[in-house]
């Protein structure tokens, strides 16, 4: 038994027999999914408003594929049948719903594995698999609410799994609105991720046209076979409505259709289905209406006219029409107020009844009628007289009374009766009065720019074939010579010319060789000028009516009408067949009569102007602006290019597919740029094998070759490739230029405008180039003749023997090794003059060189005194030159080591060490100084002592730590002039410690201590005596001490010192 399908559940109703009406749109969607020749996209999004029958379509699709009933096509691809996996959306994580449905763990991999198992079982039965998620929007709403993007990634994985051309799978989801509309709470970055997932699905629009809903209704109403009480009335009404333009009419089927929809008429059925589509749920609401025919008044009335549809809407959809989101809410509110106002002016019940029907008809026909249609007094009077028993005269009188009372009026701009609420505005008179106040002499170009928002047009065919999105922008041309070259994300201009003084001949002449520029000469300038003039007048009136809210609404609507009319003249008239506007490209007149024709022309323009652009179908990279994820992937790809270029797939793991690997495959592997060299046994880079890529490759090669004579800034290459005939998108341009620099890194020298030559390229250097390519230049070299001979010797010297890299590569590598040698030196080694003159000259040559070629073949030989080297004339000179380079390098490299040796000798001599081996003399020093008590030492002496006995077991580090404290700063940064200070300080600190060690060794108590007295005689002999001072003797010597003081205080200072010295000396000598 067939049941009504007001609401279908694909799980609950799978065994039911539903009353399904097949439509043309449904058949086309079925064929798009199951009979498409494009096997690369097998994931589909069916988008349709609530109640359009998406779920019922899925139900019918399953019945068709199971061969139970051929709703759409008896011809199915797999005669063995289809298996289904079905899921209905709910307000939970999609991974949770899938894991529950598939009885598996709640992880992405487990879900994919479970689906793979189901598919494998279907394949064993030779069946295809259909995966369906109905009400998918509920899952998206949950993701939008919680911000959990992991579930979104699961959908991407499933779609990619289903899109595998080798698999016989169809993946279908249904939505009530566009995919991106569910991402309202997300950031722009997250929204772009949604767009990426959306791109995995092919969108199919399911909204049935109004004609289809009318067809549904006619099927049901036709089966009821209502008897027409007045055949003549019905015929006259049909003839009247056939001539109106309120709703579209198909003359071929009109007569049969109006018979089958009786007791509704052509206006009432159109208003009904439009209102149900707008406020209800399409077919679902229509089926609800038809299922209760008697309750809707279809039995009692001879006709079901527009005013009765009004009553039905108010009764059943009141919440929807009063919803603040309803765009017609104001019209409905004015309508309800119009009833109240009409009641005050009509005492007669019949006249009020007619007035209410007039008001109801005006309300619905102005909302749903076509904008370019007419709804005047004559039409409305005839319509109501044919649907009811009222005379045309009575109805016309009521309409006039409503107009006189200011409730309704006929608006000339829209050609419709509409409501006039609470204003004395006579707009026609106001427009006439204000005409003289408005300046007619205004610039059309400036006004159009203000009033019209022009769309951006895409060259669709070209973008699809080449993979590069190309966009054209409308531009109003004020001056014929003000022609621009497209930059950034815009790839061309459609130049609109309104100035009638500019003729076609002049435009053709100027348009030659102007790149991607099309020109349109408008011939309807008068209409455009008049429309703008009307807008100016209305805006002036608006300013004078600031306190009249109703008048402002009316004027605002009038302004919008004229703005739409202006847009019609400027944009719509571009595509009218046989229009007078002239299109010109590159000096030739072209014919454009439709949007499709224009799009074809835009693609044609791109093919001519951007003829050298390669085909690169990677929407993640080949665009103006890339996401942060792809930017990160690009950096990771550069790392692989730098460090794994000789490996298969750049060293990427075979079972993993990160974004950077996808970029590698599409750019390097598929194009043959990275390939295996069977002769050499490893992977290498080479020219692309795809023909469309050769112009780009050759352009880059030519740029590299042109840098032999002089440096060229990398920004020049960016400029060349960023303009026609290439104009690469920035996302692709940044990737390609840096990748090419990596590929050719051995064939050029890289320079920074301030820092000079850069010996090697790494990730940091690439990042700096990406940010400021204008700061970097490259230079290539020719190595031949004597330079080649010298280069071979250099290669032996620095041990470079990588033949596959080629001459240029070896040349730059050799120079890079010299730079690395210099950069590895500490500051002392870079500045010291304690080395030979030739070594100093050679070191300065490395330091000051700005160009690798000059350094290796001019500066280095000159620094060592070899101004003319000729291996053919004197091979000994050549060998001598190489010997001197080796000697200079050795001397420079060991300069710091020699300093450490001198420091070591000074320490050993000062502390009188017998051993010269580090470990032994270190033990000897510790032993010699073991008696020292550091707490008794001065601060500097204590630190020097601790450095001497520190447990550092590395000789160089130990010597540096001791010397640093002796000098007071790091010795690897000291100047030559500071060496004498260092050595004196080492000697002084060491001697002091050596001397104080004996004093500290004395076992003193609280009253006794040892001191040392040292003096130098005139014969150079140093005399030293140690004295033990005993505090207990102070009392005994107190009196003699005072007697001596009394005597010597009478002497002068010199006399006192001489006397005391002689006494002390005699005492020390004799005792």
Automatic annotation (TrEMBL):
<protein>
    <submittedName>
        <fullName>Uncharacterized protein</fullName>
    </submittedName>
</protein>
<dbReference type="InterPro" id="IPR027417">
    <property type="entry name" value="P-loop_NTPase"/>
</dbReference>
């Amino acid at each position: 038994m067939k049941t009504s399908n007001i609401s279908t559940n694909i799980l609950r109703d799978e065994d039911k027999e539903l009353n399904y009406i097949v439509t043309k749109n449904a058949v086309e969607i079925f064929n798009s999914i199951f009979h498409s020749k494009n096997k690369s996209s097998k994931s589909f999004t069916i988008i349709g408003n609530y109640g359009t029958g998406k779920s019922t379509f899925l139900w019918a699709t399953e019945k068709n594929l199971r061969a139970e009933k051929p709703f759409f096509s008896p011809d199915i691809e797999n005669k063995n049948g289809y298996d289904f996996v079905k899921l209905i959306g709910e307000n939970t994580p999609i991974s949770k719903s899938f894991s529950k449905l598939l009885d598996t763990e709640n992880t992405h991999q487990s879900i994919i594995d479970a689906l793979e198992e189901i598919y494998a079982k279907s394949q064993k039965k030779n069946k295809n698999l259909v995966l369906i998620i109905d009400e998918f929007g509920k899952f998206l709403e949950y993701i939008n609410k919680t911000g959990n993007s992991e579930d979104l990634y699961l959908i991407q994985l499933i779609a990619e799994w289903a899109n595998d051309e080798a698999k016989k799978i169809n993946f279908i989801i249904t939505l009530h609105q566009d995919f991106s509309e569910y991402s309202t709470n997300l950031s722009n970055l997250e929204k772009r991720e949604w767009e990426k997932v959306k791109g995995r699905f092919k969108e199919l629009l399911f909204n049935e046209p109004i004609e289809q809903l009318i067809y549904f209704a006619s099927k049901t109403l036709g089966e009821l076979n209502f008897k027409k009480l007045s055949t003549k009335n019905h015929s006259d009404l049909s003839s009247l409505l056939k001539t109106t333009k309120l709703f579209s009419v198909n003359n071929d089927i009109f007569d049969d259709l109006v018979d089958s929809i009786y007791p509704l008429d052509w206006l009432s059925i159109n208003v009904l289905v439009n209102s149900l589509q707008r406020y209800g749920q399409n077919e679902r609401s229509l089926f609800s209406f038809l299922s209760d025919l008697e309750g809707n008044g279809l039995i009692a009335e001879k006709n079901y006219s527009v005013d009765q549809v009004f009553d039905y809407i108010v009764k059943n959809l009141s919440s929807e029409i009063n919803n603040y989101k309803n765009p017609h809410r104001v019209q409905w509110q004015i309508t309800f107020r119009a009833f109240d106002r009409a009641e005050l002016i009509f005492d007669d019940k019949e006249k009020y009844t007619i007035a209410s029907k007039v008001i109801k008809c005006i309300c619905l026909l102005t909302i749903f009628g076509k904008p370019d249609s007419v709804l005047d007094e004559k039409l409305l009077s005839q319509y109501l007289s044919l649907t009811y028993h009222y005379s045309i005269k009575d109805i016309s009188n009521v309409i006039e009374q409503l107009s006189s009372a200011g409730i309704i009026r006929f608006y000339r701009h829209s050609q419709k009766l509409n409501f006039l609420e609470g204003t004395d505005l006579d707009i026609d008179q106001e427009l006439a009065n204000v005409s003289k106040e408005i300046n007619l002499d205004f610039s059309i170009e400036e006004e159009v720019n203000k009033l019209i928002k022009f769309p951006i047009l895409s060259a669709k065919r070209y973008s699809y074939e080449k993979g590069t999105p190309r966009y054209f922008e409308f531009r109003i041309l004020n001056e014929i010579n003000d022609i621009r070259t497209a930059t950034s994300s815009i790839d061309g201009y459609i130049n609109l010319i309104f100035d009638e003084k500019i003729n076609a001949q002049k435009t053709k002449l100027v348009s030659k060789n102007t790149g991607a520029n099309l020109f349109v000469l408008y011939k309807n300038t008068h209409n455009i000028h008049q429309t703008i003039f009307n807008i100016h007048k209305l805006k002036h009136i608006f300013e004078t009516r600031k306190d009249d809210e109703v008048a402002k609404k009316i004027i605002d609507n009038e302004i919008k009408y004229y703005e739409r009319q202006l847009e019609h003249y400027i944009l719509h008239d571009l595509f009218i067949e046989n229009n007078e506007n002239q299109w010109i490209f590159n000096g030739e007149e072209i014919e454009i009569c439709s949007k499709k024709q224009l799009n074809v022309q835009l693609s044609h323009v791109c093919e001519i102007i951007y003829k050298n652009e390669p085909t690169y179908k990677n929407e993640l990279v080949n665009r103006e602006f890339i996401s942060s994820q792809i930017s990160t992937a690009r950096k990771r790809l550069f790392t692989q290019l730098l460090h794994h270029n000789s490996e298969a797939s750049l060293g990427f793991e075979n079972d993993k597919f990160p974004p950077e690997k996808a970029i590698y495959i599409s750019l390097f592997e598929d194009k043959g740029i990275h390939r295996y060299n069977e002769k050499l046994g490893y992977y290498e880079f080479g020219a692309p094998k795809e023909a469309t890529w050769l112009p780009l490759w050759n352009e880059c090669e030519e740029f590299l070759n042109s840098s032999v004579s002089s440096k060229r800034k990398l920004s020049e290459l960016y400029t060349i490739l960023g303009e026609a005939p290439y104009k690469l998108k920035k996302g692709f341009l940044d990737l390609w230029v840096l990748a090419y620099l990596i590929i050719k890194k051995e064939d050029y020298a890289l320079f920074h405008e301030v820092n000079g030559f850069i010996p090697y390229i790494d990730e940091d250097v690439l990042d700096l180039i990406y940010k400021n390519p204008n700061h970097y230049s490259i230079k290539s070299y020719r190595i031949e003749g004597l330079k080649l001979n010298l280069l071979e010797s250099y290669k032996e010297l620095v041990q470079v023997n990588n033949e596959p890299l080629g001459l240029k590569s070896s040349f730059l590598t050799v120079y890079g090794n010299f730079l690395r040698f210099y950069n590895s030196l500490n500051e002392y080694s870079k500045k010291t003059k304690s080395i030979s003159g030739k070594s100093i000259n050679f070191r300065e040559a490395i330091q000051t060189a700005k160009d690798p070629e000059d350094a290796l073949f001019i500066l280095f030989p000159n620094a060592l005194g070899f101004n003319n080297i000729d291996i053919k004339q004197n091979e000994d000179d050549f060998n001598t030159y190489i010997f001197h380079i080796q000697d200079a390098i050795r001397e420079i490299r060991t300069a710091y080591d020699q300093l450490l040796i001198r420091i070591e000798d000074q320490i050993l001599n000062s502390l009188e060490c017998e051993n010269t081996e580090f470990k032994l003399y270190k033990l000897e020093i510790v032993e010699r100084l073991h008696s020292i008590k550091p707490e008794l030492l001065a601060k500097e002496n204590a630190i020097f002592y601790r450095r001497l006995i520190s447990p550092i077991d590395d000789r160089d580090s130990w010597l540096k730590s001791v010397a640093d404290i002796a000098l007071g700063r790091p010795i690897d940064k000291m100047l030559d002039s500071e060496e004498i200070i260092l050595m004196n300080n080492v000697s002084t600190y060491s001697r002091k410690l050596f001397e104080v060690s004996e004093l500290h060794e004395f076992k003193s108590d609280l009253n006794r201590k040892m001191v040392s007295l040292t003096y130098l005689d005139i014969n150079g002999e140093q005399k030293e005596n140690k004295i033990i001072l005993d505090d207990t003797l102070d009392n005994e010597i107190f009196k003699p001490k005072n007697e001596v003081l009394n005597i010597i205080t009478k002497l002068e200072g010199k006399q006192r010192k001489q006397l005391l010295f002689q006494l002390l000396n005699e005492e020390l000598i004799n005792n």
